[in-house]
Amino acid sequence: MPHQSFPILDLLHQRVTTSQALFGLSVGFDIVQISQMEGSLRAFGETFTKRLFTPNELIYANCDEGLFAERLAARFAAKEAVIKALQLSELGVDWRDIEVIKKSDGDCYLQLHGQVSRLALSMGAMQWLLSMSHDGDYAGAVVMALGVTPNPQISELSTKVKYVGIH
Amino acid sequence: MLESIELKIRDVLRDHGRLNQDIERIDMQTDLYKSGMTSHASVNVMLALEGAFDIEFPDNFLKRSVFGSIDSIRRAVTELRVAS
Q: Which of the 8 DSSP states describes residue A162?
């Protein structure tokens, strides 16, 4: 099959690469199948939830009937998106060090703890943007870390930046 | 002993790995992520391995590469069983 060209992706690629160089922007994205989350809850129960989620996340996810799995799916997607944004997948992190906080006005934000917080600060990530959504059987999250210090590893990957998050 | 560890790992991957091909066709070095395992599925695999081998994966083992192949999982399980 011939390679299909998407000019808008090339334009986005240039913009993201430029933003990354100028402003220290790093992006992560992940998507989770809600029915698979339900399967994990059936198979492992509290062993699963307590390993991945903070007490506050579990309280919020459980406060409205019927939304537990989709809320946890969105939060797991957010945690994985942070891991991708900071390229932490080979460092070994506790998922509970990445917490999604629900504000009273309905917005959500990220609160980092422990080792992840230390790593993020060491990379210069001073501010995070988070957006989560779900539709049908899928929940997804995109995060942006602002202030990340450009480093050779990220520069090396910048030519592949439009593929970040597709795993 | 090593064979029984591998068989248990294969059972776990069959039940929880969400692989896109039969586990019998996966060799020791096959990249499990390229065979369909998602990051979510790898968590299920980790928890199932903990139950199957009565071990616990510490944070420093929660790396993508640890769950990347049957061989890497076997090395991690063997190390954790010795330590426990």
A: G
